[in-house]
Known about the structure:
The structure is a homodimer.
Chain A: E1 4-8, H1 13-24, E2 28-33, H2 44-47, E3 52-56, E4 73-76, H3 92-111, E5 115-121, H4 145-164, E6 167-173, E7 175-177, H5 185-195, E8 199-202, E9 209-210, E10 212-214, H6 215-228, E11 233-238, E12 244-245, H7 246-257, E13 262-265, H8 284-287, H9 297-310
Helix pairs in contact in A: 3-4, 5-7, 7-9
Amino acid sequence: MNKKVLVTGCAGFIGSNLVDELLLRNYKVLGIDNFSTGRIEFITNALKNDKFQFHKKDLLIDETSHLFKEVEVVFHLSANADVRNGINQTYKDIQQNTIVTHKVLENMRTNGCSEIVFSSTGSIYGDSRQFPTPEDTNFPIQTSLYGASKLACEGIIQAYCEGFKFKSWIFRFVSILGERYTHGHLYDFYKQLLENPKQLTILGNGKQQKSYLYVKDCINAIMMALDKSADQINIYNLGTDEFSEVNNSIRLIKDFLGIKPILNYTGGIKGWIGDNPKIYLDTKKIKELGWKPQLNINESINKTLNYFHSNKWLFKKHE
Amino acid sequence: MNKKVLVTGCAGFIGSNLVDELLLRNYKVLGIDNFSTGRIEFITNALKNDKFQFHKKDLLIDETSHLFKEVEVVFHLSANADVRNGINQTYKDIQQNTIVTHKVLENMRTNGCSEIVFSSTGSIYGDSRQFPTPEDTNFPIQTSLYGASKLACEGIIQAYCEGFKFKSWIFRFVSILGERYTHGHLYDFYKQLLENPKQLTILGNGKQQKSYLYVKDCINAIMMALDKSADQINIYNLGTDEFSEVNNSIRLIKDFLGIKPILNYTGGIKGWIGDNPKIYLDTKKIKELGWKPQLNINESINKTLNYFHSNKWLFKKHE
């Protein structure tokens, strides 16, 4: 019999790619999404598959405990991923990330499900002093409510591992790129240039150094860690062994579109309040399992730009 | 004009001692407590002082924003401090610690108050690999919902510092002892022996190595850090440069009471699920400000036992 798994945020960027992979691997997949940022278009194929069962639910508000019955692994990917807006929406990260994660854990505990895969973030390292940043770097200081809310999730998950013998796989992602990417600097830049190819506004000085990973490499890493690492708490950085300036992304977009917009920098080393101007994670631990990314950063960016080019509907207002 | 400060958990063990010190220093003190573990007896003297204003409120449920008006510093000490019970009450730590702290921060932000003193815990280091444990030790793994909930508070406070230019003083306490101590192993042992001096049950093997600090030393450290350290985020371990076995506490209690009970150990290196069998914090950072504790661990234990002896009412059922 096929394993039954549950994916929260199943219609999101990473969630929907994960659902496709899980269905390929013959899992029975129960997906939950509230379409706050997820898109029905991303699960069109999955919905045709008998092994996929979808529930439109809001994990914060709706009663969802019954959906966790007989589930063996929960892939908890639903989140507010809008890092920049924490200072305007001071409840959202705590509610959508921390409180929802706690609810998911309670749903699991009360239904006897004890294996959780969790999408955390490199943002929890704050303004790290160590590059590349390993998983056991110095106790970090948070710079955003997003990072703080994910740190809280990690801690609560770990407490469930100790208290209730859960097993967890916690992945600290760099920015993920690729098919169905709909949130982040590349999306913002592309959208701006679709509307006006002559001007581009860049938050900060464009010299922020960030790291990126192709979504399919990300999902392969998750599946490999799940197969190969069997500690009670498994924490992995996921990224590439590179970082790239925001200005590099701009160069690639300009080349891709064949345009030369005027670049307006808002200035400062941080793109926004709470931004971490350098993110570069040490990925030795996941690579020791035999994983390596197939695409480098520039290839991931170009893959994403090609996807945008074929999917201009993404830039229409999401309803 | 005297500075107006607010103390949450003002009728608790540490909170009430802090209130007394703040009043001595001529602050105007607004205190909030819901008497969940706080005791009216602990603020009897404070209530006679014109500069003390008390409000019985539940920070989780009641509307308290108006109480933060014109407050300059918030000492946020209210918490669920019952580490052991997280596995039975899986919502309590998240609600009473994490969510309440977030509410306190929002109350501050919306009232223009931006200085917070926060009582965190050495428990957030989990099962540390480094002793004595410095503030910037390796990224810890949580072992209890209590620790996880306090870690979450720290992260959220730090995010408010970055996002809203708050200033914070975060203190990671060892176990605090002294007058008005009403929660922890000494209290439990003394209570057992009052009921039956012939038997004592000890959780674990008695060899847990913990660190303790006298409450007045704790409060002096807080006041000194507040005076002398002016970073945006100030994190300090508070403890003594010692640790002590649980068996040492038992020896001191036996001597104090002049009894020889039969000792029944429940066994195992951990006293309970999620217990950290060794807590020993590096206090170099706070000592560099000129602070040093007046009492060592054995003196703190004896001080506490003397307090128990004169205050047997503490062991009657709290209503």
